[in-house]
Amino acid sequence: MNYDITMASEEDRSEILSLYKLQIGRDFCPWNDYYPSNETIDFDFSRDALFVLKSEGKIKAAISLEEDEAVDSLDCWNEKLTPSGELARLAVLPDEQNRGYARIMLRFGMEELKRRGNKGTHFLVNKYNTKAIRSYAAFDFKVVGECHMYDQDFLCYEKEL
């Protein structure tokens, strides 16, 4: 598997937006025509927080280092792991799934959060998304709570970096 992971650029915007739109309607995906959007990408660009995996000149996957006050303020997170960063908007082209790209992007996201000085990472996973849960199991994340946000039931995952 030959690929590069780089910080996304303005030239990647339309391809990233297309990748996001391909996720709409997939099992357990809460995304819609309004989210994630160009404004979401702008927010990620403003924080140097959007990364893409490219192979053969095409974006196969993307991940963001999120800042979401509602998620960050949940009381289940371990205070000893602060500062802690959230991984979000992990997307893989539908026809490229089950090839390890999600795990590659998660590993990269955790390394980048650690490089930026974070002690831990956390994120939410739809509690019925068994495919995602299996993918995260390889990293020994701990389920530290549950919550209901964005019209879904989530498991709260956390890991020391």
Characterise the protein shown here.
With 161 residues, this protein is an alpha+beta fold. It has a single domain (4-119), classed as Aminopeptidase. 29% of the residues lie in helices and 32% in strands. The protein contains 5 helices and 7 strands. It has helices at residues 13-23, 38-46, 69-72, 101-115, 130-137; strands spanning 4-7, 50-55, 58-66, 84-92, 120-126, 142-149, 152-160. It has a 7-stranded mixed sheet. Strand 2 and strand 3 (58-66) form a beta hairpin. The radius of gyration is 15 Å and the shape is globular.
Order of helices and strands: EHHEEHEHEHEE
Assigned CATH class: Alpha Beta
* Radius of gyration using CA atoms only: 15 Å
Helix content: 25-40%
Biggest sheet strand line-up: 1-2-3-4-5-7-6
Beta-strand portion reads: 25-35%
Low-confidence stretches: none
Distance between the termini: 26 Å
Number of helices: 5
Give the structural class: alpha+beta
Q: What is CATH's topology name?
A: Aminopeptidase
> What's the average pLDDT?
94
CATH architecture term: 3-Layer(aba) Sandwich
Q: Give the CA-based shape.
A: globular
- Summed up, the domain count is 1
Q: How many strand segments?
A: 7
CATH superfamily: Gcn5-related N-acetyltransferase (GNAT)
